Amino acid sequence: MRQNAFRAAAVVAAALFSGPVLAQQATWTIDTAHSSAQFSVRHMMVATVRGEFANTKGTVQWDGKDLATAVVDATIDAATVSTREPKRDAHLRSADFFDVEKFPTLTFKSTKVEPVAPGKIRMTGNLTIRGVTRPVVFDVEGPTQAIRDNRGSQRVGASATATINRKEFALTWNAALETGGVVVSDEVKIYLDVALTQPPAGPAKK
Fold this sequence. Notes:
The protein is an alpha+beta fold. The protein has one domain (23-198): Lipocalin, CATH 2.40.128. 15% of the residues lie in helices and 47% in strands. It contains two helices and eleven strands; from the N terminus they run αβββββαββββββ. It has an eight-stranded antiparallel barrel with strand order 1-4-5-6-7-8-10-11. The chain starts with a helix and ends in an 8-residue tail after the last strand. 17% of the residues are buried.
């Protein structure tokens, strides 16, 4: 009898304490106009080419307190790639690289978020490029302290970096140089600057 009573009490306590935590989980939306996804790669072994994608969308599910509860889901429009050189950009959109006709988006979905120091996070997740999904670890700075804009929405920001091997994502095109080496390096660095918004809560339901 006592054991059954103890189990019942434990179930009730779990329901009472887990309920508010779940209720606090909220959706934060990536503010596309104030966010950027950029990359850099070595060209012909001597110069660094930088590019960006213009259309980053997605959400972060987060209770606003415990960063370990955050779940990130982001999508990038592959066709918006730009390195400020039209011929190169057309090549990047072609089947040699992103093949945007077959694979119009790049996606990232987090699987684990770990606070490692004040203002610093390690975020692990699945990055999909050209239909190939691989685990990637981002080093994140932030989020900033939340502020409220003139519309009553809350805003936070964060930046993240990661390094990938492009060949692991089927981005294998290259050409050899007469002097040795290749046109494009395998290592690609990724830089993200993201602003997140959460609209004001509506009136309480009666």
